[in-house]
Amino acid sequence: MKYVLLIYAAEKDWTTLSQEEQGRIYNAYWAYTQELKSSGKMLACEPLQPTLTATTVRVRNGKMLSTDGPFAETKEQLGGLYVVDVKDLNEAMEWAARIPDAFTGSIEIRPVMDVSTIDNIK
Amino acid sequence: MTEAAARALDRIFRTESGAVLATLIRVLGDFQLAEDALQDALTAALETWPKSGVPDAPGAWLTAIARRKALDRLRHQRIVEAKSTAVAQLMRLEQEAQTELGASGWSPEPDDQLRLIFTCCHPALSREAQVALTLRTLGGLSVGEIARAFLATEAAIAQRLARAKQKILRAGIPYEIPGRESLGPRLDAVLSVLYLVFNEGYWATGGPALVRGDLVADALRLAASLVTLLPDEPEPRGLLALMMLHDSRREARAGARGELVLLEDQDRSKWKRDEIQEGVRLVENALQMKRPGSYQIQAAIAAVHAEATTAAETDWRQIALLYDELLRYEATPVVELNRAVAVSFAAHPDLGLRLLDRIERTHALENYAPFHLARADMLRRLGRRDEMREAYQRALPFAENEQVRRFIEARTRGEA
């Protein structure tokens, strides 16, 4: 089954870290990603720019409205994602629990919808 | 059908349906389909058994009928929805039915029930969902019975169950027994679901006490089957022993008007001796496996209480030592509180009070009635009446149970 592992972490905390600490986290991510890749279970991996770069778009009554910033103001922000193809939720949980930000932030696991079982798509 | 016959059928359904359902889920790979097929089979049994008599192996009979009903349902579903998953499943099942191997795959395996209980108590499900699913699937309780037991509406429980089954299916929660490396934490989740069911029945947080008695029996039944399914694990034995030792005091726990009777004031002749003996045997048996755990130690504590013929003969030193041990597995303020009570009896109430002061500084149990009740009782034993009354008053807003409230009021008036 395919799952998206969404990484939520407090951006504010990141900016307070020293360069060495940031380097350690980068290294941890690099090692983790290498391992996931070589297991053959990684489909995608996308770290995101911080939320100050975010733009949110809505279309209402035919008009596009855009606002600066992410969709919701929350304590933890979406910082990146992995897409994995694994046996079941247990395996997805095991990989998620090893993402470096799982130790301070949180990882949301969402199964990818299988559109091939929807019959009324033309 | 006579009422006795109906009760007998109900008993068979309750004991058999968990195992039958567990097998159906493994073969069908679909919780909802398995449950619907089982319902069909139970309806068929209700029609035929009163006439033809109960078959020798009711579980096998139910499984065979449920299998046929499941195939019927899948065929029907194929026509109505033309769902590709349903078609694939049907083709697989029809193919399997042709072969000898396929037919034997339908026979219940003892591991099916373990798979089911670990799936129901999967950490990706909420605790409420875990409890409802376990009672519905393994306990064989109806939606209405679960709703009454947890003082919820049938619609709310039905929705909770439907959501949980959806999540199992769509999030890919596997139907399997966890491997060695994750068995420990996963088993803890199962045990705490069963203990929650037991406590809900035993302490009856809300509503009239009588409604909840069945939950105690359900929890005992499920724990006993877990012991059979995992014979090499000591903690399920510890939990079953703990439940039995608590349950042995059920009759003595309430007075003539339903009021709460403290352990030290209970009429010990009302304790069920056979249940105590069985509980003590189980916990000794578990401790011999040399892998102690929280439930085993709690059961050992309950056993020390149960073996004292009078309250004065209680071996409080032993109990205080066991609480020290328990703190290694469960370093919670509630365990600290129980340890303080044991120390107050083993040594002196003053020492107990000092330990309570230490807990109070953490503010962890401010809203916990038993904390204030324990302090009040120590003050009573020291003859500090004014402070005692004050402590009882502080407990009152946090008492969840009518019986506890009446007990506090009686104590403040100085009756008891």
Structure, explained:
The complex is a heterodimer of chains A (122) and B (416). Chain A is an alpha+beta fold. Chain A has a single domain, classed as Alpha-Beta Plaits, CATH 3.30.70. Helix content of chain A is 27%, strand content 34%. In chain A, β3 (55-60) and β4 (63-68) form a beta hairpin. The longest helix of chain A has 20 residues, at 19-38. By secondary structure, chain B is mainly alpha-helical. Chain B has four domains: 3-108; 109-202 and 212-231, no CATH class; 241-246 and 261-314, no CATH class; 329-416, Tetratricopeptide repeat domain (Serine Threonine Protein Phosphatase 5, Tetratricopeptide repeat, Alpha Horseshoe), CATH 1.25.40. In chain B, 72% of the residues lie in helices and 0% in strands. The mean pLDDT of chain B is 87.
H/E element order of chain A: EHHEEEEHE
| Largest two-chain interface | A-B, 13 and 16 residues
Number of strands of chain B: 0
* Rg over C-alpha atoms of chain A, rounded to the nearest angstrom: 17 Å
**DSSP summary: helix tally of chain A:** 3
Average of the residue pLDDT scores of chain B: 87
Largest sheet of chain B: none
What gross morphology of chain B would you assign?
elongated
Name of the CATH architecture of chain A: 2-Layer Sandwich
Q: How many discrete domains of chain A?
A: 1
Oligomerization category of the chains in this entry: heterodimer
Number of strands of chain A: 6
Helix content of chain B: over 70%
Strand order of the largest sheet of chain A: 2-5-1-6
